[in-house]
Amino acid sequence: MKNQGTYNGYRIAVPVEFEEVFSHFYFSENKSGNSITHTLVPSFQTMMIFNFGTAVSFINKQNDEIEMGNCMIAGPLKQAVRYTLPSGAEMLVINFKNDAFFRFFGTALLEDHLHPDDLMTDNCFSTLWKELTKIDSLERKITHMLTFCRPFLQGRHPITEQIIALGNNGISPVKEISNREQLSERSVQMKLKEHLGYSSREMGRYTRFLKAIQLVQHLTSGTDQVNWFEVVEACGYYDQSQLIHDFKHYLNLSPSKYIKLRQGICVSSINSENHTSLPALF
């Protein structure tokens, strides 16, 4: 839980019934008199955000500012995003795991941002938002949202089930499943992209970068010094230039700039399935 003056942000556990679908929920509110800005490290997850206060804004790598309305979906988040919570902001974030977004909406490939009603035949999420605004208790808000979404959830595709089960155990899930199911690697890769929103190569590169970020956090605990050659070797980079390239690709920052700004950057961790859990703030 984060509490900076009158800014509060905390994670909320997911009921057992939905643990395969959501990693956790995140709630934040800014009751201070100032805007608060953070950088969100890419998580390769899709998020749905409900806004119950003043408009929250997001700025992508191209410096495009997106001011959200009552509800927004974004992802899979593959590059850093800055977001600003102005005074009076209050938002609830729902974080989808693995293929969960596909199982709800029948797609995993989205634009940078979208209103969920754009994926439906009616304005049901705008209606849901109105219903949530009338509920004072955060716990009852989440219960109501889960009750609403339960009928939309579809079963998991058998191929996706195998991809998720294999995770990142040193064996290419695409190659393994291709051999097992007598399918072409291309068809398995297309299924992964369709259901999860990214390729195994993209996830492999991201997992390596995330490992580097976490090692840097450990090495710089109480100091601003880091042995970058140690990071390169420990995380499987060819050389320091490849590491620098990944920092600029994912964060739009050099490694040294990241060290200076890391207190305001929210970093993910890797869970037991070798998919990412949600960032510290989200």
From TrEMBL:
Keywords on record: DNA-binding, Transcription, Transcription regulation
GO molecular function: DNA-binding transcription factor activity; sequence-specific DNA binding
Alphabetical list of Pfam families matching this protein: DUF6597, HTH_18
The keyword Transcription regulation appears for this protein: yes
Domain HTH araC/xylS-type: 174-261
InterPro entries, per the entry: DUF6597, Homeodomain-like_sf, HTH_AraC
Domain of life: Bacteria
Name of the protein this chain belongs to: AraC-like DNA-binding protein
